């Protein structure tokens, strides 16, 4: 009885972790099979998140069309993908130059995309431009450029590829948005405005596409960390820190966001918010208690000004 009691807990934990492992492996296979042979277009495939999305969709056997505005970076991504993948279960990616803020070129780029395989199954609108600064310090010209890259660009590309999806009565459109498409924070006015506009457009599109079996998803991460900001491997203190606080201190790793994008596609989720408890709570406070949210943001700004004056 005593020996049984000693072994019961470790055996239970082992059993639970085994079940979790099997569940995760099965879900990964399900997600993979959902994108196998599908034509997947990723804009700004060379960004941190774009690269990871390219990797997971490529490994899943998707026929990738990778877009980006720098040819050398696209070629480097191409080399990285084909060097690690098994050629018998993956397709060689196609590369296309696309500057998402160059609205006048997008129709031609869309034709080029359609010429690759004759159709598009999944469009991942990932490209975006960031800007940080006080409203009065950002020129109206830059405000418009941000709006072109983050709103008119994805909208123009989506509209150009939509007739192909509608005629085939199938397709998925994913907008990589941001928590800043749900809440406005200081010094991010142009970016937040463009992300709010994009989410509004794609929410309406989702409803309109209901009759065509076209799924529209928005994925809104909080802060995606850079690789170089990860704690060093092999350092136990860093590992514990990583385990408990990584998401708060360093943001979410691009790999985790890419895997969530794959799950979003395979499960046809409509809206995903990737956020820790604090930013998640901020979204709810903004919705249900807006004045409390504005007061918290304002006190943060006052605190900042006070610290700056003291220094
Ligand atoms: N990073 C975050 O914390 C965060 C948080 C929430 C949401 N997101 C969203 O996640 C997506 C990917 O962001 P990321 O953080 O992975 O990007 P990133 O690694 O910071 O890279 C920025 C990318 O933007 C590209 N770019 C800038 N202007 C462009 C244009 N006009 N046309 C095409 N590409 C352009 C750059 O291309 P070049 O290298 O060629 O200049 C670069 O690849 C974006 O939609 C972003 O809004 C990011």
From TrEMBL:
Gene3D superfamilies, per the entry: NAD(P)-binding Rossmann-like Domain
Gene Ontology CC annotation, any one: cytoplasm
GO BP field: intracellular calcium ion homeostasis
UniProt keyword annotations, A-Z: NAD, NADP, Oxidoreductase, Signal
Transmembrane recorded as keyword: no
GO MF, any single term: oxidoreductase activity, acting on the CH-OH group of donors, NAD or NADP as acceptor
Pfam hit, one: adh_short
SUPFAM superfamilies cross-referenced by the UniProt entry: NAD(P)-binding Rossmann-fold domains
PANTHER family: DEHYDROGENASE_REDUCTASE SDR FAMILY MEMBER 7C, PTHR44668
Family note: Belongs to the short-chain dehydrogenases/reductases (SDR) family.
Designated name of the protein: Dehydrogenase/reductase SDR family member 7C
Top-level taxonomy: Eukaryota, Metazoa, Chordata, Craniata, Vertebrata
């Amino acid at each position: 009885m005593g020996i049984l009691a000693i072994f019961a807990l470790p055996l239970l934990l082992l059993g639970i972790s085994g079940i979790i492992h099997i569940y995760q492996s099965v879900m990964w296979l399900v997600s993979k099979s959902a994108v196998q042979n599908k034509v997947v277009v990723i804009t700004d495939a060379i960004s941190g998140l774009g690269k990871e999305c390219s990797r997971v969709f490529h490994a899943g056997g998707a026929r990738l069309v990778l877009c980006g505005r720098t040819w050398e970076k696209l070629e480097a991504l191409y080399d990285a993908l084909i060097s690690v993948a098994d050629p018998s279960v993956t397709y060689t990616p196609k590369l296309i130059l696309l500057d998402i803020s160059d609205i006048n070129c997008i129709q031609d780029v869309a034709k080029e995309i359609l010429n690759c395989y004759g159709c598009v199954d999944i469009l991942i609108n990932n490209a975006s431009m960031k800007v940080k600064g006080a409203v009065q310090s950002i020129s109206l010209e830059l405000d418009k450029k941000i709006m072109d890259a983050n709103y008119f660009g994805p909208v123009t590309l989506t509209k150009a590829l939509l007739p192909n999806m509608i005629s085939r009565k199938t397709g998925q459109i994913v907008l990589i948005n941001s928590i800043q498409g749900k809440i406005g924070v200081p010094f991010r006015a142009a970016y937040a405005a463009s992300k709010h506009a994009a989410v509004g457009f794609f929410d309406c599109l989702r409803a309109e596409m209901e009759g065509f079996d076209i799924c529209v998803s928005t994925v809104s991460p909080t802060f995606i960390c850079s690789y170089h900001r990860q704690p060093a491997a092999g350092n136990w203190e860093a590992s514990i820190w990583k385990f408990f606080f990584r998401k708060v201190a360093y943001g979410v790793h691009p790999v985790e966001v890419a895997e969530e994008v794959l799950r979003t596609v395979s499960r046809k989720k409509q809206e995903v918010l990737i956020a820790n408890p604090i930013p998640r709570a901020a979204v709810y406070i903004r919705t249900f208690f807006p004045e409390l949210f504005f007061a918290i943001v304002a006190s943060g700004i006052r605190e900042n000004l006070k610290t700056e004056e003291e220094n």
